[in-house]
Amino acid sequence: MKYLCFSIVLLLGFFLTACNEGEQQNITENDDVSEGTSESEIGSDDQENGSDDGTTGETKNGEEGISAEDQLGLKIGDTAKVENNFTEFEVTLDAVEVTEKAGETPSEQGNYVILDLTVKNLSNEPLTGVDAFSSTSLETKENSSGFTWFYIDGVVEAWNSEIAPGEAQSGSLLFDVAKSEEYIMTMAKHLEGLSNYVTFTFSPEESK
């Protein structure tokens, strides 16, 4: 009888010990799961806020904006640096011609203004004169709306040939504008944030 009671007590002791160990193991596993979920949630929040190991943050902070400053009131012979979100180049206003006829074609507005220009490609991609001057117009002192340029065969030729990176090319732009005491060639006037703004100012007396 003694041995029987002793055996029962011993078995109960083993049973209670096993139960306690099982409960402790379950508590430990639950704690591990909670801790893992917490870390995962923190990592998710960091990624959403761009504060993870830096991939998203670096992309945002590494974006390059327009660094070239506006250059206003330049004169014949001056060179400007133009930078936009597509390309980068230098443009020099070499000479200006003001005439009432372009070849055999008389002006409809008052006179023609022919701008001789040189473009140097500072980007890593080919560039054409048409692309470089896509946002260029000529204003008069009295009218700030601006006139667009065009070509007349035999007078001013199309400027479509590519300018390789690091190379320069010269060409002309033709404008039919009203007569004025002063003219302003503008580049990227309404492209704030996408390009720097450049102007060249000259009078008919400065023309060749």
Walkthrough of the structure:
The structure is a single chain. The strands form 4 sheets. Strands 1-12-11-8 form a 4-stranded mixed β-sheet, with no helix packed on it. Strands 2-3-6-10 form a 4-stranded antiparallel β-sheet, with no helix packed on it. Strands 4-5 form a two-stranded antiparallel sheet. The termini are far apart. The chain is globular and about 40 Å long. It is built from 3 helices and 12 strands. Residues 1-12 and 26-63 have low confidence and may be disordered. With 208 residues, the protein is of the alpha+beta class. It comes from Oceanobacillus picturae. Residues 26-72 are annotated as: Disordered. It holds the Pfam family DUF4352.
Spell out the key features of this protein.
Immunoprotect_excell_Ig-like, 208 residues, signal, 12 strands, DUF4352, alpha+beta, 3 helices, 4-stranded antiparallel β-sheet, disordered N terminus, Telomeric repeat-binding factor 2, Immunoglobulin-like
